[in-house]
Amino acid sequence: MKNPFDNLDKVLEHRVRLQIMSALVTNDAFDFSALKEMLNVTDGNLASHIKALEKEKYISVNKTFVDRKPNTKYKITEKGRNAFRKHLDALEAVIKQQK
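C-alpha cells predicted for Transcriptional regulator:
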C-alpha cells in the first residue's frame, strides 16, 4: 500500500504557506499588509513564504501604486489551486488511513 504522506506537497507543508494558500483560495486577492496582519507574521517571514509560493507559480503577484504608495496584491494561480486541492486530498487520505 502506498504511503499517503508521499502525496503531500512539500511546498505546502509549512503552516504559513498553507495559511496563505487558504486565504487566497477563498478570496479573489490579498495585499501584503492584509496577509501580514491576518497571519500575524513579520514582513520578512511573509516575504520569504510568498517568494517560495511565487517560485512554484502557485501565486501571482501584481504590483501597483495606490495614492503614490506601492501596493502588492497576490492571487492564487490555477496551478496553485490544483496543488492546494491535491494537498488537501492527501491530508484527507492520511486521516482516513489512521481510522
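The chain has a mean pLDDT of 93.
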